[in-house]
Amino acid sequence: MRAPRLTFLGGVNEIGGNKIVVEDGPDRVLFDFGPSFSPQYDAFWFNFLQPRSTSPVKDRLEFDLLPRVAGLYSEDALYGTELAYQPPEFHAMFVSHAHFDHAGSLNLIDPKIPVYLGATTRELLRAVETTTQQRYGVHDYRPAAEGRPIRVGRIEVVPLPVDHSIPGAYGYLIRTSEGVVAYTGDFRMHGPRAKSTHAFIEAAAAEHPDTLVIEGTRAGPDPRKNLSEEGVRLAVDRLLSQTEEIALVSCYPRDLDRLVTLYAAARAAGRTFAVSFKTAHLLKSLRAELGPSVPAPGESEGLVAYRRAKRQYYKWERPFLDDAVDAEWVRRHGREILLSLDLAHFAELIDLRPPRGAAFIHSMSEPFSEDDVDEQVLANWLDHFGLHREQMHASGHCSGPELGQVAEGVQGKRLIPVHTEHAEAFRALAPRVTLPEKGEPIEIGR
Predict the structure, then answer these.
(1) Strand locations in 11-69, DSSP E?
(2) How many CA atoms, within 13 angstroms, populate the side-chain half-sphere of residue 438?
(3) Domain with 379 in it
(4) DSSP conformation letters of 237-265
């Protein structure tokens, strides 16, 4: 019987899109399944030009944006392709966290394949499906609890929490008959749950792993400015103390740490934090899952939902209507407000009429490219209304030096970088680095 092996179907020389297969004898397990942020996708699909809902696999296979693998996709998803449907040849799938590039293609997976994920990740997927058009499909979802081994034939998987820019992120220890693979998922060492990442490193090192599969988003050149979450809080505190006008902020919609930071900063400055209905729903959902440490409108003082003018509201939005504030209210109370406003909703500025020179906090990654279309549109709006931009962000990923600390701490016999455009940068961080090739198996324990 052949040795256990790893095969990378995505996440190779690209950001996101991890699709990692672990095989041991007849047993086959998949880790993560989402689209990448590859230029290949943007070369053919953008904005409203997207793969057709009737042929989602076919349209992506046309441009090699999905792996041609039997026994993985649902019969419906395969409509129109040359791939004949086959019963599942994967015995389980594990999701590391709820970001789109790791879970966004779940809807294509055969529903007969069990999907393991943490309770918080499951709640996040529900919230996303409720408040957006994103669908993950009907699956046999099974709980992956912290530290509890899950047996899939010869393979044993241990979920362990790591710090990332979304709650509920896991790394995995994957035990095979010929050695252990430690898979970090997406992670960082400078966030509020940095202790979880350090605990994962210690647990991985104790297993003396054959292979460390490590994400390297920030490996190589990284000119963008990034703070710790504490650094973001200090920067927001300083700005709010220096402005007597309304302050606006944009952040990633499911970055709970950032939302908590902004809420705390607003309260410390005597301001009310106003969020979208979508964010209000997310906070309500996570408060039910994680407890009162998560602020939520209607339950936390100084936190309100902002109501955009619409002809009708979705069913999930209606519980927030009675206590929501509108543009007129925000204009009257502007000096007392920190308003969260996504780029997609910048048309609200026409009604809000913030005073020229008001602060806009961009609490997201700086653009990779000067040709970023969204960045240009953002700049146009800020310029039109005379808003002053401040960059305040803490990355969800390890810096280059932090990646070196992880490699040294885990001491795997071999390191395999994924989720990076600079895999070669890891050669300076570990004595034995294997650069994966998409679809090419790598034996474990050899």
Answers:
(1) 19-24, 27-31
(2) 16
(3) 229-391
(4) HHHHHH--S-EEEEE-TT-HHHHHHHHHH
Closest CA to 110 of 95, 92, 96, 123: 92
Tell which residue, 89, 105, 144, has the closest CA to residue 16.
Answer: 105
**Judgement on whether residues 356 and 277 belong to the same structural domain of the protein:** yes
pTM score of the predicted model: 0.95
Q: Are strands 247-251 and 359-363 parallel, antiparallel or unpaired?
A: parallel
Buried b (16+ CB within 10 A) or exposed e, 367-393: eeeeeeeebeebeeebeebebeebebb
Q: Which two tokens stand for residue 407?
A: 């490699």
Domain CATH for 36: 3.60.15.10
Give the DSSP per-residue string, 296-340: -TTTSTTEEEB----SS--TTTGGGTTT-B-HHHHHHTGGGEEEE
Question: SS3 of 381, please?
Answer: helix
Query: 203-235 pLDDT, tens per residue?
Result: 999 999 999 999 999 998 887 777 899 999 999
Scan for tokens 């008001």, then name that residue.
358
Work out how many domains the chain is built from and give that number.
Answer: 2
Question: How far apart, in whole angstroms, are the C-alpha atoms of residue 287 and residue 294?
Answer: 5
Q: Are residues 10 and 139 in the same domain?
A: yes
d(CA 108, CA 56): 8
Model pLDDT for residues 3-16, shown as the tens digit of each residue: 999 999 999 999 99
Q: Decide if 248 contacts 354 (C-beta within 8 A).
A: yes
For tokens 């409108």, name the residue.
Answer: 297
